[in-house]
Design a protein that fits this description.
The chain has about 200 residues and is of the alpha/beta class. It has helices at about 15-25, 30-35, 45-50, 65-70, 75-105, 135-145, 150-160, 165, 180-195; strands at about 1-5, 30, 110, 125-130, 170-175. It has 9 helices and 5 strands, in the order βαβααααββαααβα. Strands 2-3-1-4-5 form a 5-stranded parallel sheet, with helices on both faces. Pathway: Cofactor biosynthesis; coenzyme A biosynthesis; CoA from (R)-pantothenate: step 5/5.
Length: about 200
């Protein structure tokens, strides 16, 4: 199984790139989706999050992501505590899904992980694509998308490794600051490169 990484930053357009890769036939596993699955109602993951962060489970028994986000985005210690609960479970879910894909004869998988570089995962992957935009574009998109003021947007950006730092670890950089057609052409080129490996 060939495992490639896909990463970017908040409001960099990684979801757009993921959609394009899937349209080209790529199997993309999304770490954010896995992270949601491991804290579904009734899971040990949700029980552990609820114990560590009282008050973040809503009356419907589901995780209140807004409340949890407010607690962890501005506090590195709280974020680390959350990651210690979530990350091992996500890793386990990822390995299970990769085994299932391999059993179906799938030869390549792309793992879409926001904190791929920060977690050191790029070191064991065959290649990494980084979705990049200039920081001012990223900040403007984030403010527009999430209705944030400049200070709140800066706080969210500061919680992540800058895209300029991430691109230093990239096998491929997808510049998503221009037209969609330009992004699509770059995505097609990256997918061809991934297909050429092995």
């Amino acid at each position: 199984m060939h495992v490639f990484g896909l990463t970017g930053g908040i409001a960099s357009g990684k979801s757009t790139v993921t959609r394009m890769l899937r349209e080209l036939g790529a199997e993309v596993l999304d770490a954010d989706v896995l992270a949601r699955e491991v804290v579904e109602p009734g899971t040990p993951g949700l029980a552990d999050v609820a114990a560590r962060f009282p008050g973040v489970v809503g009356p419907d028994g589901r995780l209140d992501r807004v409340k949890l986000g407010a607690r962890v985005f501005s506090d590195a210690h709280e974020r680390a505590a959350l990651n210690a609960i979530i990350h091992p479970r996500v890793r386990e879910a990822f390995l299970e899904k990769v085994q299932a894909l391999e059993a179906r004869g799938v030869a390549r998988v792309i793992y879409d992980v926001p904190l791929l570089i920060e977690a050191g995962m790029h070191e064991w992957m065959e290649g990494v694509a980084v979705v990049w935009v200039p920081r001012d574009v990223q900040k403007a998109r984030l403010m527009s998308r999430d209705g944030l003021d400049a200070a709140a947007a800066e706080a969210r950006l500061a919680a992540q490794l800058p895209l300029d730092s991430k691109r230093q670890h990239a096998t491929w950089v997808i510049d998503n600051s221009g037209e969609l057609a330009s992004t699509r052409a770059q995505v097609e080129s990256v997918w061809r490169a991934m297909l050429a490996r092995g």
